Amino acid sequence: MALNKKPYRGCRDFYPENMRIREYLFDQMKNSAHLFGYEPYDGPLLEEVELYKAKSGEELINDQIYSFTDRGERFVAIRPEMTPTLARMVANIHRQESKPIRWYSIPNLMRYEKPQRGRVREHWQFNVDIFGAAEGKGELEILSLIRDFLKSFGADHSMFSIRINDRMIVDHLMNQLLKLDEDSSYKLYKIIDRASKVTTEKLNQMIDEIITDSSAKSILNQYLGLDSFAAIKTFIKENNIPAESFLNIVSGAEELELLNYLEYDPAIVRGLDYYTGLVFEIFDKHPDNKRAIAGGGAYANLLKIFNEEPLGGIGFGLGDVTLKDFLESHGLLGDFSKKNCDLFVVTTEEEHELSVIKLANELRTLGCKTEAQLEKLKFNKIFKLAEQKGFSHVAMIESKDNSPQVQLRDLKTREIQYFSLEQAKDILKAIKG
Amino acid sequence: MALNKKPYRGCRDFYPENMRIREYLFDQMKNSAHLFGYEPYDGPLLEEVELYKAKSGEELINDQIYSFTDRGERFVAIRPEMTPTLARMVANIHRQESKPIRWYSIPNLMRYEKPQRGRVREHWQFNVDIFGAAEGKGELEILSLIRDFLKSFGADHSMFSIRINDRMIVDHLMNQLLKLDEDSSYKLYKIIDRASKVTTEKLNQMIDEIITDSSAKSILNQYLGLDSFAAIKTFIKENNIPAESFLNIVSGAEELELLNYLEYDPAIVRGLDYYTGLVFEIFDKHPDNKRAIAGGGAYANLLKIFNEEPLGGIGFGLGDVTLKDFLESHGLLGDFSKKNCDLFVVTTEEEHELSVIKLANELRTLGCKTEAQLEKLKFNKIFKLAEQKGFSHVAMIESKDNSPQVQLRDLKTREIQYFSLEQAKDILKAIKG
Fold first, then answer.
1. Rg value, chain A, Cα
2. C-alpha distances in Å from residue B2, one per residue of A51, A54, A60, A73, A304
């Protein structure tokens, strides 16, 4: 019986071309994080299920995690998200660390998803968080980092926008203006969260089930119609909403020339628990891919599950799949079909096969990425193969007057130079200039 | 009830210092692989248990894997090793790829180990494999790569050796010279594998249980006493062992100046299945850490489980834990306690807090790794904090004649220079020269 050659459902095999793309995405993530002084961390693949329950409640846990009981009777799960691990790690060290704490990670995560476009079971997520920052300033830094990260691929504000809102506004709306109890608030949160995905008719129908009072309904409709920073500013003022921190973030963003990357969106609320201040989602503006690429926000009580004193944080998570889809939609991914290698060393004669390896080894100690052809090749095959593999140069060892010489060819200019086997440094110079 | 703040048993939390070390190890792995023209790949975290059983048999599988049944009734496992995934992926593409295929990966793997020094449940493993190379040449390339990889950390042949043997020799010994049946061969393989870990007395006792014939016993003892390439060469000649490929590898290694990194070791046999030619283990020579850092070898039948035609390969796996222990034993790990950042931007005045972020953002677009202090600091705290964080330069925004200026301090030379807020480029020049 032959075994199945497909990867496990919803997971990906990364052959070299796709792996080069993934490495490129990760390198850009690391670069952006380092430019802002963020430090790398990582945690275990498995955590106790209790930890995920404490952060996200039973629902997500039961539906979406890969959980099992280990041989020591521990009920564990493959991490579906990084935040609980982050919280556990920060809870261990925050008292002795100087603030703000700036951390990032790029873990692989697993969720039991039904595979579809943009959704896989295993993905990687760029997680960036800042803890203990001065009020409003951490938000501005995180928003700057997101903008710079996407700009590093060549994206600009015609391609994406960061839609922001504030949980202080939404909570005030629910509790004070609409006077909803906790249960109705929860339901309305879910409706708002799905507002952009349903028809206006359907939306009104869902709202009718929760809000019957007509003046409340009119306030809600007014809220859902807010479509600019000017409009939300007026709404805040007219309804006496205590949203000074949000207004400060908006004016700071203006001063930092961030505002053309931001949009106000009343439908951004994110999950009911967890977030307590600014919330945001990064949206792809491409007509074929109108989707959130990433999301995040400010949270005050992440360490509560560890009985630790409150420590405010702001962070976001951005998946490798949605990022790649975004970049592809806008034609921002280059050509990754060829491997990154400087030189192809070959011979047509069996007697020089070991010299091929020897010369290649020497070139490598000088930093030259070198592929050695381990077996002699026919002359007319060499250059076809080299071009197919994407090399710019070929070094061919051949016999000349009974001693070996190296013929170096530039495949673009067709220029040919000759060297002895001992001239590795000169060969490198000829290639790299 | 407060939650547990420890990581899952046998797994590691990577706080920034340890994560920087891990990233350094991974970067060296990638560099070495790229220098030899190896391409990156990766596969899913989960594979069906059938795949692992097909490669390694029931025993390893039942004892050591994290397996469970998913919601779709698939019996799956968190990958305990990369080779079965590699085999599956190569089986998919080998027919249309030009040979040799050169691939590497650095996956996280999980085994249900009892945690102890050098053994953890989750680790990362540098996997390097070449398929379809000319006979004996792939071995030489892989051995060169291992040597260069460890040399890239500053290690030399006083610190490690690659102990080699060949399965053709061991198989000939078992079948032809000792005339053992399959079952006894299997037992003897296990005994030889453990030879270095038991006393001579215990070893002889174990051997006595399998071999009773005294001339056979004498041959085995002679074999186990072979301690040099000269000795094994004589043994091969005297016993007519068909080991030409092994002898070619040794003479090739001599020509490539690899031989001072190699030792012949009759006790290196590796697992019974799987390997078919050269086998090797990399040993740490440090008296406190005499251990195998990594192992590998040549295998001919990896694709058999997929009913594919044979494709010979050579490869090795090297774990992050054993590598780190090796480097630490020899003092080859540098200082990773400080973050890698160029500049600390601060102010003592609240009115300049936003300017700190703005200047930092501008410096970042120029490629300067910049940490912004988001809240004003007292003057006498700034430089202490900057030194503690490991910065070489501080840019402090301050009021001068009612307008802001930037005071740039070199913390080593104590030199001070002044700039306007618009001179980000000049500031960068002053730092980087």
1. 28
2. 10, 10, 21, 20, 9
Cβ atoms of A42 and A126 within 8 Å: the answer is no
Residues B268 and B162: their CA atoms lie apart, in Å, by: 11
- H or E stretch covering B230: helix B229-238
DSSP string, B23-82: HHHHHHHHHHHHHTT-EE-B--SEEEHHHHHHHHHHHHHHHH-EEEE-TTS-EEEE-S-S
Structure tokens, B138: 């792939």
Instruction: Domains for chain B: give ranges and CATH numbers.
Output: 16-37+83-102+129-329 (3.30.930.10), 343-432 (3.40.50.800)
Beta-sheet strand order (sheet of A46-48): A46-48, A75-78, A67-69
Pair A231, A264: CB distance under 8 Å: yes
The rounded distance, in Å, linking the Cα atoms of A391 and B86 is 26
Question: Within its chain, how far is the Cα of B99 from the centroid?
Answer: 25
A128 membership: H or E segment, kind and range: strand A122-131
3-state helix, strand, coil in chain A (%, to 5): 40, 20, 35
CB contact under 8 A, A15 and B358: no
How far apart are the C-alpha atoms of B361 and B352, rounded to whole Å? 14
Cβ pairs A/B, distance under 8 A: 253
Find how far residue B239's CA is from the centre of its chain. 37
Q: How far is CA A256 from CA B355, B359, B417, in A?
A: 8, 10, 25
Report the candidate in B168, B161, B133 with the shortest Cα–Cα distance to residue B314.
B133
Measured CA to CA, the distance from residue A297 to residue A280 in angstroms comes to 6
Name the packing angle between helices B244-255 and B229-238 (round to 10°).
Answer: 150
* Interface contact B37-A372, CB threshold 8 A: yes
Contact yes or no for A120/A12 (Cβ under 8 A): yes
User: Could you tell me the two tokens for A29?
Assistant: 């993530």
For strands A75-78 and A46-48, give the pairing: antiparallel
Each residue's pLDDT expressed in tens, for chain A with a length of 433 residues: 568 899 999 999 999 999 999 999 999 999 999 999 999 999 999 999 999 988 877 666 677 899 999 999 999 999 999 999 999 999 999 999 999 999 999 999 999 988 787 789 999 999 999 999 999 999 999 999 999 999 999 999 999 999 999 999 999 999 999 999 999 998 999 899 888 788 989 998 999 999 989 999 999 999 999 999 999 999 999 999 999 999 999 999 999 999 999 999 999 998 767 899 999 999 999 998 888 999 999 999 989 989 999 999 999 999 999 999 999 999 999 999 998 899 999 999 999 999 999 999 999 999 999 999 999 999 999 999 999 999 999 999 999 999 999 999 999 999 999 999 999 999 999 998 7
The secondary structure of chain B in percent helix, strand, coil, rounded to multiples of 5, reads: 45, 20, 35
- Alpha-carbon distances of A113 from A66, A274, A317, B245, rounded to whole Å: 10, 22, 18, 50
Model pTM score = 0.96
Selected residue of A1, A5, A366 to mutate for chain B interface (largest B Cβ count, 10 A): A5
Which of A3, A22, A76 should we substitute to test contact with B (largest number of B Cβ atoms within 10 Å)? A3
- Give the residues across from B47 on adjacent strands: B77
Note whether B358 contacts A256, CB cutoff 8 Å.
yes
* Close Cβ partners of A281 (under 8 Å, ≥ 6 residues apart): A162, A163, A265, A268, A270, A292, A294, A295
Query: In terms of DSSP bridges, do strands B66-69 and B160-166 run parallel, antiparallel, or are they unpaired?
Result: unpaired
Inter-chain contact A76–B8, Cβ cutoff 8 Å? yes
Q: How many CB atoms lie within 10 A of CB B321?
A: 17
